[in-house]
Specification:
Layout lengths: L1 H19 L2 H27 L7 H5 L18 H20 L22 H23 L17 H25 L7
Helix pairs in contact: 2-5, 4-5, 4-6
């Protein structure tokens, strides 16, 4: 009991000292934190959108030849279609978990992969590309929103934060974009620029 009272007294004294600080110093500390928050958000957005050290999504998949989308090069276990749709499903799951407390993730691992090597129809590839772009924009919107505390635990999670989910999404996408680049090279469908 005495220890708790001593802590409370120290806390009250600390608050009084902070209140006595000149307003300019308090404001400078607050603006420094705000600048750090903006900087972190900008770095995350660049990582999500542009890739920094890895290829971006559009460069890797935007012009993928239709006749090669379902082909598996020798020695690789996946086709471009499987990797694209896996990335779409995993990204959708990360975004929905981040913003929807009622979201239920697919069964792992089967629910994260398409059933076929090739797109089931000509429109499936474009639909997957479009859905991927939409979900990426949704994560960018979460990261951009200054009302979203990047460091706060997601209430329906078990310790995750929006910062962690954004980094997970970028990391997962980078990993599979690298695989797609190798796949394109093995299929003879990559031009160095």
């Amino acid at each position: 009991m005495a220890k708790r009272k001593a802590r409370q007294a120290r806390s009250v004294k600390a608050k009084k000292r902070a209140a006595k600080k000149p307003a300019a110093k308090r404001q400078a500390a607050g603006s420094s934190t705000a600048m750090q928050d903006r900087s972190l958000r900008q770095h995350l957005l660049v990582l999500l959108r542009d890739g920094n050290a890895h290829l971006d999504f559009e460069r890797t998949l935007g012009d993928f030849p239709a006749d090669l989308r379902g082909r598996k090069p020798a020695g690789l276990p996946y086709s471009a279609w499987q990797l694209l749709d896996h990335m779409r499903i995993a990204q959708w799951d990360i975004v929905e978990f981040s913003r929807n407390p009622k979201h239920v993730s697919p069964d792992f691992p089967a629910g994260y992969w398409p059933r076929s090597d090739a797109p089931p129809d000509p429109e499936a590839w474009d639909k997957s590309l479009s859905a991927f772009r939409d979900d990426l924009r949704a994560m960018e919107k979460l990261v951009s929103d200054p009302k979203v505390d990047l460091h706060a635990r997601i209430p329906h999670g078990d310790g995750q934060t929006i910062l962690r989910e954004a980094l997970l999404l970028a990391d997962h996408n980078a990993y599979h974009l690298g695989q797609l680049l190798i796949l394109r090279r093995l299929l003879g469908a990559w031009r160095e620029s």
